[in-house]
Amino acid sequence: MARSPRAVPEFCGVLHLRPLPGSFRAARVARKTGVDARRQLELTLKQAVMEAKILENAGLDTLMIENFGDTPFRKDQVAAETIASMAVIAREVRAAVKLPIGINVLRNDAISALSIAAVTGADFIRVNVLSGVAATDQGWIEGRAAEVLAARERLDPELRILGDVWVKHAKQFSSDSLAHSIEETAYRAGADAVILTGPTTGRLASRAFLDEAVAACLAHDIPLYLGSGVSSETVSALPHEGISGIIVGSDLRKDGMAGTAVDPRRVSRWIKAATRHFAG
Fold it and tell me: Among 142, 28, 138, 135, which Cα is nearest to 127's?
């Protein structure tokens, strides 16, 4: 899935799903509006398929599906109905577009992500904490790489794992070195690629962290993805080498706000800015 670090990076668009059955927000919507879980899922599915087609037609290379609307997130095991809902959506998105598909079950339910990916024909998963220990807004989260790799071997050995390093909305407690965390995530935890984010959703990593990550990944031939904050305005500041992919969500949406509907005009603007920068 990853392109060479010296080529134009892969552009991965994120589908921010509405609140799914099993989440607090979906239950609140049902209570306030009388719209039951089945109808909510139908509306979410329709929007996801529509947005997937918009992103494919605009020139994105891959898509990632995540239960973004389910805040506050469960730490490491989501509800069964959430897993079932994401599987239904992933299957329909898979049928609607020809792009590779990824699954991210927030906050850190990698086993469910693998299960959804395996049964729906998805191509990769994202794991926020694959290696080490992080203090997050959900509490302490520990990496479970051994379990994740064993599950992949059982379910679909071809599925790729993208593992975050120093993930957003969290503080890493396993290492003070970003470069060492990258090596641990790729070599010891078995990630096929690593993801670098800024401190929160929509914020780019600092230039110091970005330069350190690029240097480490180039030195060890590890694919590097940028997972937050790459907008049509900030993309021009990125280095031309060392980035295998860019995961973009917020900047493709109305007013650049995560969780809102995809805005085709913003998608077009982002694609033009990113292509112009890396092709130049």
Answer: 142
